[in-house]
Each structure stands twice: as C-alpha cells, then as structure tokens.
TrEMBL record:
Its EC number is 3.7.1.3. This is Kynureninase. Pyridoxal 5'-phosphate binds at T112, S113, F140, P141, T142, D143, T182, D211, H214, Y236, W266, T292. The modification N6-(pyridoxal phosphate)lysine is found at K237. Pathway: Amino-acid degradation; L-kynurenine degradation; L-alanine and anthranilate from L-kynurenine: step 1/1; Cofactor biosynthesis; NAD(+) biosynthesis; quinolinate from L-kynurenine: step 2/3. Keywords: Hydrolase, Pyridine nucleotide biosynthesis, Pyridoxal phosphate. Belongs to the kynureninase family. Belongs to the DegT/DnrJ/EryC1 family. Its cofactor is pyridoxal 5'-phosphate. It catalyses: L-kynurenine + H2O = anthranilate + L-alanine + H(+); 3-hydroxy-L-kynurenine + H2O = 3-hydroxyanthranilate + L-alanine + H(+). Signal peptide: none annotated. It comes from Steroidobacter flavus. Catalyzes the cleavage of L-kynurenine (L-Kyn) and L-3-hydroxykynurenine (L-3OHKyn) into anthranilic acid (AA) and 3-hydroxyanthranilic acid (3-OHAA), respectively. GO terms for molecular function: kynureninase activity. It holds the Pfam family DegT_DnrJ_EryC1.
C-alpha cells in the first residue's frame, strides 16, 4: 500500500506528493501522449533508456520500407533516388537542433569511439607544439582508450593528463592541446560547466572535445552558445536509434577548414566518385566521414531523432528533472540504505541517477526480475535513467517502492543474483 510522502521538493507543486497527486501529474503531463510512440513491453518499468533507448513504433515500418522497397526494389539506385548518400548530413542537421549547432556542423558516422579518435587526431595536428591531452579519471573508459591511441599514433612527446573534475579549470595551461570531457558523467550524471571550461581552454589556446552521449536528447546543450569546438555523441541512448546505432560528431564552422580527420576515408574525399589515388578532404563537415555509412542504422536513427523533435525540448528537460527528483526523494525517504552518488542538486546532474550499495549488482538483478530495469556500474552502483517521452510519474513511484521492497526484504541474497552476466 502506498503511503503518504510529505517531503517538499524542488517540484514547486501545489500539494504534498501522494499517490493520487502522482496520477494527476500524469494526466496533466504535456508529454503524456509520447509514450504511445514506443513499443514498451507490458509489466516493465524501463529505467535504462540512458543505456539503450526502447523501440519507437515508427522504426519498424520505416525499416520494413527501406528493406523491401528502397533496398529490395531500388537496389543500388536508391543511393541517388532515395538520397541515401545525403542521409548522414540530413540526420546530422536534425541532431544539430538538439545540441545548439548550425546546419552543416553535425554529421552522422561510425561509432562514438571512432569519431572521438578522428577529432582527437585532428585537434592534436592543429596544436603540434603542445603536449597534453587533459581529461579526468573515471571518464568513460573508451574515451580514455581513444586518447591513448591518438597519443600513441604521434611521434612527438604527448601525455594524457587526468585531473579530478574540480581541478580541470586550474589544470588548463599553455601546454594543453586538447581538453576532452564527457558533458554528463556516465556514472554520477554530474554535469561539467561547458561554458566555463571552453572559455578557459580558449584563453590558453587549447581546443575542447565534448562527449554528449549522456546529454543529447535529455538535457539542454548549446554548443554554439558556449563557443564549443568539437563534440561527439551516441545514437542509441536518448535518441532511440537502436542497438549499435551510428554516432555523430560536431565541428564548429570556424574550425572546419583548419581540421582534417586522420581517418581519410573515401566518403570524406572531395571527389569520392572520381576515384583519385591521393586524398583531398571535402569541404565542410563532410570531410569527417570515413567509410560507407550504415544506411539501415542511419535511417533508424532518423526516426528516433524525428520523434524527439516533435516535442518541445524545454518540456523534456523539465519533466526529466521532476522524474529524477521524485525518485531521489522517494529513495531517501523509504530506502535510506542506498547512498546517492549523483549530485543532490537536480540542476547539476543529467537525466540519470546512481546509488551505491555493497550488493549493488545482486540488487539490480533482483529488480530486473521484478520488471524494474536499470543497470549496474562497477564497483557498486545501481544506475537509473529517466526518459521523459515514455516514463510516467506513476512508473517512478512504483519503481521506488519496488527498490525499497527488494532491498529491505533481502531477496537479492539469492545466489543466482550474484552470477555476473557479460553485460551489466
């Protein structure tokens, strides 16, 4: 039975948080009809859209059309007749609207890791007299691995320097070639101050690369407003592009003529179908393409991006904050043995929250068996994502009480929950 929860939160609501109030908020939600745009299995509360977004209903029909008509009937003609060749730029322009970029500054291509390597290589080549790539310990591992790879590919002395988040601004100096940070931390959801860090880097002549994988489609991003240089981002989280969806990259127009990708693929050539032996970089953002794009992946991603563009970003951001604030406050009240590791201030975190518990993995497995799907991040974090387009306030209420029941009952101690799966 749901009990009354009287804690006053940053919701600025008119009344105490009770179950009837929760149901009313769902009825008043301007995004309530967006839930119908997704194929969500019954009996599931999905709190892992920050890792893999669910299937949009329109994706199935769109891909059926592409496979049966454009590929099946059009064959190779569809590169021209259905403009497959333009898809990476077209979808990139749509993503640009979500991240404060201009048309011609974003392209869909490859994976986040590959795109990051491209931008690191381009940035290091543009700052040949500098020897430091600056990031933070605990950044998403592939970002650090790509930095190590980009540094190893250079013959001149370079180092990857890791500083705690609170020391990043002080660590930027005249030796810094590139600052590489994830805008919203994948574990804690803590948000870096994009404007302040970018400004400090520019003051010292450094370039900045932002990873927007846990930002795009969930929180406000204003790349051009912050005078950002470069960015990468993921297509399968909040953009709902499907497992392994193509990623995207952003390069400011003011830098496009200066920077060249170290991966000189034929799709980034100025004249790809003249089949010239020597590489000539294309004009603009197209020079950061590499190999032939995955058309099925790009067109699936386009469906997810179009779906987000049908709603106002301010409604998405506001509901994201309210959903996560509701969950955090409920857990604090009914399950205090979980320790919040995300910022307590909702304005300082992204659209997911993490809690620490020594038995975090087993607890998450027990939750998943009960239909509340989040994920686990080593060594001890339970991570819950809040995607406003399909989550209801009622879902968050029910999920919080399920978490409390699992933790308090001790059902997670069943030995089968301790067996680690390949993907956590």
């Amino acid at each position: 039975m749901h009990r009354k929860f009287d804690k006053i939160t940053t919701f600025e609501r008119r009344d105490a948080i009770t179950y009837p109030a929760i149901r009313r908020w769902d009825q008043e939600d301007p995004l309530r009809h967006r839930r119908e745009d997704f194929e969500l299995p019954g009996g599931i509360i999905y709190l892992d859209g920050n890792s893999l977004g669910p299937l949009p209903r329109a994706t199935r029909g769109r891909i059926d059309e592409v496979v049966a008509k454009e590929w099946g009937q059009g064959l190779i003609r569809s590169w021209n007749e259905h403009r497959w060749i333009d898809a990476p730029l077209r979808v990139g322009d749509k993503i640009a609207k979500l991240i404060g970029a201009r048309s011609g500054e974003v392209v869909v291509a490859d994976s986040t890791s590959v795109n990051l390597f491209k931008l690191l290589g381009a940035a290091l080549a543009a700052r040949p007299d500098r020897c430091v790539v600056l990031s933070e310990p605990g950044n998403f591992p592939t970002d650090l691995y790509m930095a190590e790879g980009a540094i190893g590919a250079r013959s001149c002395p370079l180092q990857l320097r890791l500083e705690p988040a609170e020391r990043i601004l002080q660590a930027i100096d005249s030796n810094t070639a590139v600052v590489m940070l994830t805008h919203v931390h994948y574990k804690t959801a803590a948000i870096h101050d994009m404007r302040a860090i970018t400004a400090k880097a520019h003051e010292h002549g450094a370039l900045v690369i932002w990873d927007l994988s846990h930002s795009v489609g969930a929180i406000e991003v204003d790349l051009n407003g912050c005078e950002a240089d470069m960015a990468v981002g993921c297509g399968y989280k909040y953009l709902n592009g499907g497992p392994g969806a193509p990623a995207f990259l952003f390069v400011s127009q003011r830098l496009q003529a200066e920077l060249t990708s170290p991966l000189k693929g034929w799709m980034g050539h100025n004249r790809p179908f003249e089949f010239i032996d020597n590489y000539e970089p294309a004009e603009g953002i197209r020079r950061f393409l590499c190999g032939t794009p995955s058309i099925l992946g790009v067109l699936s991603l386009e469906v997810g991006v179009d779906l987000i563009l049908r709603s106002r970003m301010q409604d998405i951001v506001q509901k994201s904050r309210w959903l996560s604030e509701l969950f955090v406050d409920l857990i604090a009240d009914i399950c205090p043995s979980l320790r919040l590791v995300s910022p307590a201030n909702v304005h300082e975190r992204g659209s997911h929250v993490s809690f620490a518990h020594p038995e975090g993995y087993a607890i998450m497995q027990a939750l998943i068996e009960r239909g509340v799907i989040g994920d686990f991040r080593a060594p001890d974090l339970l991570r819950f994502g809040f995607t406003p387009l399909y989550l209801r306030y009622q879902d968050v209420w029910d999920a919080a009480y399920t978490v409390a029941d699992v933790v308090h009952s001790g059902c997670w101690a069943d030995p089968r929950y301790a067996v680690r799966a390949a993907v956590t």
